[in-house]
From TrEMBL:
Protein name: Gallate dioxygenase
Extradiol ring-cleavage dioxygenase LigAB LigA subunit domain mapped to chain residues: 27-112
Keywords in alphabetical order: Dioxygenase, Oxidoreductase
GO MF: ferrous iron binding; oxidoreductase activity, acting on single donors with incorporation of molecular oxygen, incorporation of two atoms of oxygen
CDD domains, A to Z: PCA_45_Doxase_A (cd07924)
Length: 437
């Protein structure tokens, strides 16, 4: 599946997509800085000096100094951001729009008064459309990204603390870390280029001001968060903006309404699984695309929705035309309740049936309603819905391949939680239908 960007053929029009957004990131953030009176005053006092404080290209700076909005937009500016700059200079949307058309302000206003620009002559020209269709049938690239495996693991913060404070040999913690010895070895032998890491932020990067259901990290890097006890002494995470932008495009086109975030910190939900799988490192050995799922405030997404998202994620990854090896991780769970008189609830039987069914019949398991998680696995056991994103991304789900269970571990307790862990390898058949369109 190549991504459809036919919108680029519409004449006199620039669609603000991931590519434009990457080009214009600092330009647009510069515009946002003009939302305070003090910054507007400083900008108007010396435009050049203020612009020089921002990592803009010379072309972007000159475009602003020349009031050349077409160039600013070509180089990643977006009109809603630029309207802050325009307002600073006393320009209305109509003045800004008109300035891009080659007409005088009076001519433009007059055109609008007479019904606006006509659609006739402003559609994609037939020969442009034909040339575009012809180029779209060029041979598809032969190499694509693939999903080599899925990892499922709890992400208890106390595990990170125990690791950071060198308590791994204490009997309480040794029993936990022993369950991940195989996993570290497996990662050394099967190191991916990218981990697509599904986790939930725990009131760290997102608080009650913004509650997105699904967040895809499209940024270049993510520092480890300070969750109230200082940031963990682990490296920051390097993202993969290009693959993430491709996934964003593909998933949103499949009607998954994602929130895209370029800058955020990442908490124990993401860093503890990295420690468990990679151990002590100066730099994480691969890129990580963070994917946050709201499981803090109800309504939270269903297991079935996450399972469908995982399937769409595989189509997205397999249509990326670079030979990138991707693992998908699902984190959180298993049974735990961190609140109220029922705190400490653990349900071994339910957890182990969940692990069995996750391997053997994830489609049926994904139908389990929220109530069952809360009642059987404790209020925070709801984190398990995130595992379905990783599970849905494997090839057996649509019978285009098989999976292999490499490792399974279950242990009670780590802090308040039952630790569950699975490693599944993905073996798509060579003729996998996904990624071939
Ligand atoms: C614990 C487990 C979690 O998954 C979490 O996010 C916070 C705390 C715990 O068991 O202490
Ligand atoms: Fe958690």
């Amino acid at each position: 599946m190549s991504l459809d960007k036919t919108y680029r053929q519409v004449p006199g029009t620039t669609i603000f997509d991931a590519e434009q957004s990457a080009k214009g990131y600092h330009l647009n953030q510069f515009c946002m800085s003009l939302m305070t009176a003090t910054n507007r005053e400083r900008y108007l006092a010396d435009e050049r000096a203020y612009l020089d404080e921002w990592p803009l290209t010379e072309v972007q700076k000159q475009a602003l100094l020349d009031r050349d909005l077409n160039t600013a937009i070509e180089h990643g500016g977006n009109i809603y951001f630029l309207s802050k700059w325009g307002a600073t200079l006393g320009l209305s949307f109509q003045q800004m729009a008109g300035s891009m058309t080659g007409m005088s302000e009076a001519e433009y206003r007059d055109m609008m008064l007479h019904g606006g620009r006509a659609i006739e002559g402003n559609r994609i020209a037939d020969q442009v459309r034909e040339a575009h269709h012809a180029s779209a049938v060029l041979p598809a690239p032969t190499e694509h990204a693939h999903i080599s495996g899925a990892v499922f693991t709890s992400h208890v913060p106390a595990i990170g603390v125990a690791w950071d404070q060198h308590k791994t040999e204490e009997p309480y913690w040794k029993q936990v870390f022993d369950g991940y010895e195989y996993s570290k070895q497996w990662e050394r032998e099967n190191l991916p280029d990218v981990v697509f890491l599904v986790y939930n932020d725990h009131a760290t990067a997102f608080d009650q001001r913004v509650i997105p259901t699904f967040v895809l990290g499209t940024g270049a890097s993510y520092p480890a968060a300070d969750e109230g006890y200082g940031p963990r002494p682990v490296p920051g995470v390097e993202g993969d903006p290009e693959l993430a932008a491709h996934i964003a495009h593909s998933l949103i086109r499949e009607d998954f309404d994602l929130t895209l975030v370029n800058e955020m910190t990442v908490d124990h939900g993401l860093t503890v699984p990295l420690t468990l799988m990679f151990g002590d490192v100066e730099k994480w050995p691969c890129k990580v695309i963070p994917f946050h799922v709201n499981v803090v405030q109800y309504p939270v997404p269903s297991g079935a929705r996450c399972f469908a998202l995982g399937q769409a994620l595989r189509r997205a990854i397999e249509s990326y035309d670079r030979p990138v090896n991707v693992q998908v991780w699902g984190t959180g769970g298993m049974s735990h309740q961190l609140q109220g008189p029922r705190a400490g609830l653990i349900n071994r039987e339910w957890d182990n049936r969940f692990l069995d069914a996750l391997v053997d019949d994830p489609a049926t398991l994904s139908q389990v309603p929220h109530l069952e998680y809360v009642e059987e696995a404790g209020s925070e056991g709801i984190e398990l819905v995130m595992w379905f994103i990783a599970r849905g991304a494997l090839a057996d789900v649509d019978d285009s391949g098989t999976i292999e269970v490499k490792h399974r571990f279950y242990h009670v307790p780590a802090s308040n939680t039952a630790v569950g862990h699975l490693i599944l390898e993905n073996h798509p058949r060579a003729t996998s239908p996904a990624g071939k369109e």
